[in-house]
Amino acid sequence: ILGVKADRQYEPMQPGDVSQTYADITAIERDLGFKPQVGLRDGLTRFAEWYRGYFKI
């Protein structure tokens, strides 16, 4: 998406860190009829393009 390799530096877990999280929008779909209009990859790509333009990088 960004065209660069991530420079990851893993650090030990800190107190309060959550090791795993999962997005579950079942309730909002059921209760409000919300369904995402943009997929994850497309959304990340759009955000990266906006970010680069906004911060002129």
Key features?
single chain; 57 residues; mainly alpha; 2 helices; 39% helix; 0% strand; flat
Written account of the structure:
There is one protein chain. The chain is mainly alpha-helical and 57 residues long. It has a domain at 26-57. The radius of gyration is 16 Å and the shape is flat. The chain is 39% helix and 0% strand.
Q: Counting H and I runs of at least 4 residues, what is the number of helices?
A: 2
Radius of gyration: 16 Å
Query: What structural class do helix, strand and pairing data support?
Result: mainly alpha
Instruction: Give the rounded overall mean pLDDT.
Output: 95
| Main β-sheet description | none
Range of helix content: 25-40%
Please render the helix and strand layout as text.
Elements: H1 26-32, H2 40-54
Short description:
The chain is 39% helix and 0% strand. The protein is built from two helices and no strands.
